[in-house]
Amino acid sequence: MALTREQMAQRVARELKDGYYVNLGIGIPTLVANYVPEGMEVMLQSENGLLGMGEFPTEATIDADMINAGKQTVTARRGASIFDSAQSFAMIRGGHVDLTVLGAFEVDVQGNIASWMIPGKLVKGMGGAMDLVAGADNIIVTMTHASKDGESKLLPKCSLPLTGAGCIRKVLTDLAYLEIENGAFILRETAPGVSVEEIIEKTAGKLIVADDVKEMTF
Amino acid sequence: MAGLDKRVATYEEALAGLTDDMTVLAGGFGLCGIPENLIAEIKRRGVKGLTVVSNNCGVDGFGLGVLLEDRQIRKMVASYVGENAEFERQLLSGELEVELTPQGTLAEKMRAGGAGIPAFFTATGYGTPVAEGKEVREFNGRKYILEESITGDFAIVKGWKADHYGNVVYRNTAQNFNPLAATAGKITVVEVEEIVEPGVLLPSEIHTPGIYVDRVIVGTFEKRIEKRTVKA
């Protein structure tokens, strides 16, 4: 069975470490915040200028001056700090964020990522995505393995305009966890009940099945 | 208005000198921390042909979106747009020019502009459409593109509190691009919720020192919330 959105968030959360500063993109990445292991402390960075994003407010504590990068109203947790956008991207670009999780349309075997622009459709902009992928060392891309029509999103070469070149090394799809090394996807883990054959079939880019490929458990 | 007292009494005075074809830098992220009354004053003045530099372009009927109604913006420099139907219409019809800029690069362009740095190298955007036509240099084995800084004829800024000297503090994430825009305007106008007596703001707390600020005005704010989200 393909992973649910919640299971994908759960799997990503296993990459968290105590003391990490983490930037979570919109969508599935946001859900990762719900699965921070008990006893572990991580600080969530929101690129509009908040380090230490807390939970959503109540009707009583809602504050128009306190939002996250997805423009949702949020709170600041204990130990949080707030700063301007240049400072926010200095910590991103300067490599100070330990883990970045974001979505994509496509990734390829060279670690290229396309996530912001589909030619012919209205382009709304890249927001902070280009800065995040260029600045972070440790990035996990979350996406479905194939489109609704069955077209693979793990490609020999991205077909869409790039968000960043050569910057992605870890990909979690609804079918598998893969790493990108030396021009190939390395299959490390399969979703429960998903066969290696199905993943091979749905991966257009060069795929190497690791000797010790595991099945994820939840 | 005399000496170091930056206070002005009316919005008309706050934007005196703003004319057609100028470049305006605006603080704000989404609808958070936007100089909503200064934007309304730009609309009232009816100036046209503006280049507006701001992370976003408001929504239909609010924020910078109101400047689209009478087609006052010629060019928009932003990282994310299209939350409004009129923006989309003008973009597709070619009436509006848009320069999409990565958010961190946009912030740094304003910071550098205000700091007297004409350009800087960044890895952001290398290998993407953003890099087209830009100089590429390699440092320590990595490729970077040259990005030019931005300054404006006017900067319009939303602060929380200011004093007569134009020292400003911002509230929570309404800070965002505001302090950066404040440094990069030839004329920087800050609207705030409260003007306090000199000495009330602690020197060590000031986000924007008064040297960057030309005019301060106190206003009332709607503070519209774009995505109201509460705990389940």
Largest sheet of chain A: 10 strands, mixed
Number of strands of chain B: 13
- If you average the pLDDT of chain A, what whole number results? 96
- How are strands sequenced across the largest beta sheet of chain B? 4-3-2-1-8-11-13
Q: Secondary-structure element sequence of chain A?
A: HEHEEEHEEEHEEEEEHE
Shape of chain B: globular
- The level 1 CATH classification of chain A is Alpha Beta
- Cα-atom radius of gyration of chain A: 17 Å
CATH third-tier fold name of chain A: Glutaconate Coenzyme A-transferase
For the biggest β-sheet of chain A, the strand order reads 4-3-2-1-5-8-10-11-12-13
Task: Indicate the mean pLDDT of chain B.
Answer: 96
Structural class of chain A: alpha/beta
Secondary-structure content class of chain B: alpha/beta
What CATH architecture of chain A would you give?
3-Layer(aba) Sandwich
The percent range for helix content of chain A is: 10-25%
Q: Count up the domains of chain A.
A: 1
Q: Helicity level of chain B, as a percent range?
A: 10-25%
Order of helices and strands of chain B: HEHEHEHEHEEEEEEHEEE
Number of helices of chain A: 5
Query: Kindly, what is the distance between the CA atoms of the first and last residues of chain B, rounded to a whole number of angstroms?
Result: 50 Å
Q: Please, could you describe this protein's structure?
A:
Chain B: Keywords: Transferase. Chain B: This is 3-oxoadipate CoA-transferase. The complex is a heterodimer of chains A (218) and B (232). Chain A is of the alpha/beta class and 218 residues long. Chain A has one domain: Glutaconate Coenzyme A-transferase (3-Layer(aba) Sandwich), CATH 3.40.1080. Chain A is built from five helices and 13 strands. In chain A, strands 4-3-2-1-5-8-10-11-12-13 form a ten-stranded mixed β-sheet, sandwiched between helices. Chain A has a three-stranded mixed β-sheet with strand order 7-6-9, with no helix packed on it. Chain A is globular. In chain B, the strands form three sheets. Chain B has a seven-stranded parallel β-sheet with strand order 4-3-2-1-8-11-13. Chain B is of the alpha/beta class and 232 residues long. Chain B has six helices and 13 strands. The mean pLDDT of chain B is 96. The chains are: A alpha/beta (218), B alpha/beta (232).
